[in-house]
Each structure stands twice: as structure tokens, then as C-alpha cells.
Amino acid sequence: MELSNDFERLLPLAVAWACQREREVLAAGVPLDEREMRDATAIGVLLPERVRLLRVARIPMPEDDVLGEAARLAGFASPLTAGLTLRYGILIRNDFWRDRALIAHEMTHTHQYERLGGFEPFLRRYLSECLSVGYHNSPLEREAVQRARRLVN
């Protein structure tokens, strides 16, 4: 699979998957605690009261074979992924539950979703960055790492 050639075809599938997962997290997740609310505000999240955290055994991958393979190839998610932000829904792996640095990192992505205008604009930019410069070098990912580091140190 050549991800750069299939990007425009896969993006709507990724957006639909992320929207559905967000609905599930918002329905079953828990609100931020007081410290997390303060952190979200410090990060710049506009609507921290909407954020919900959901504890999971593992971060789910897209069920669609093509989309799942694309996510793996882009380095977007793996068995080692500790958290995943789907706008206001944040999935946290069991062994990182309530980890302040991870939640701050993920809330930075929430702020990015807000700043960029929602699912499609965020995922278009984030996934494009991951494909062009790699997950760890993505400017949006680096911003999340740096903001979380500054907040908790």
C-alpha cells in the first residue's frame, strides 16, 4: 500500500472511525479531575468540561483492514500506544491511567483539534505530517511532547 497515493481515499474513513470512537468515549468515559481541568486550561483547551477519559486494556486499531494497515504503516498506533485523542474523547491504556504527563500530551491534541477546526482538518494535517516526516518528527506531535514536558516539570 502506498499511503501517499491513497491518502485522499483513506482520510474520510479515518475521520468516520475517529468520530465513532469519540462518541463511544464520551458516552462511557469520565470527566477530568480538578488537576486535569487546571492542566487543560493551562494548555489552552477551550472546552475542558467536554473532555472524557476512557480506560482501556489496549488502544483500538481501526477494524477496516485497509485503514488498520494504513494506521500501522504511518506509525499512528501500535501495541505500545499509551493514549489516543479523538477530539474530546481520550483513550488511556490501563497502565497509564491518570498519568499526568500522558494526559497533558493528549489534551494538547484536543487543543489542536479545536485550533485546527475539528476532525477533518486535524487528521489531514496530523496524518500528512506523520507520513511526510514521521510520527516522532511531526510538528503537532512535537508540540504535544513539549507542552506536556513544560507542564509537568
Quick overview of this protein structure:
The protein has 153 residues and is α+β, with helices and mostly antiparallel strands. The chain has helices spanning 3-28, 34-43, 65-74, 100-116, 119-133, 139-152, and strands at 30-31, 52-56, 83-86, 89-93. The chain has one domain (3-152).
Descriptive notes:
With 153 residues, this protein is an alpha+beta fold. The protein has helices spanning 3-28, 34-43, 65-74, 100-116, 119-133, 139-152; strands spanning 30-31, 52-56, 83-86, 89-93. The protein is globular and about 45 Å long. A four-stranded mixed β-sheet has the order 1-2-4-3, with helices on both faces. Helix 1 (3-28) packs across helix 5 (119-133), helix 2 crosses helix 4 and helix 4 crosses helix 6 (139-152). The relative contact order is 0.17.
Tell how many strands the DSSP assignment holds.
4
**Average of per-residue pLDDT values:** 92
Q: Output the strand order for the largest sheet.
A: 1-2-4-3
Low-confidence stretches: none
Distance between the termini: 41 Å
What best-fitting shape do the alpha-carbon axes yield? globular
Number of helices: 6
Largest sheet: 4 strands, mixed
The topology string of helices and strands comes to HEHEHEEHHH
Task: Summarize the amount of helix as a percent range.
Answer: 55-70%
Q: How many structurally independent domains?
A: 1
The proportion of residues in beta strands is: 5-15%
Structural class of the helix and strand makeup?
alpha+beta
What is the C-alpha radius of gyration, as a whole number of Å? 15 Å
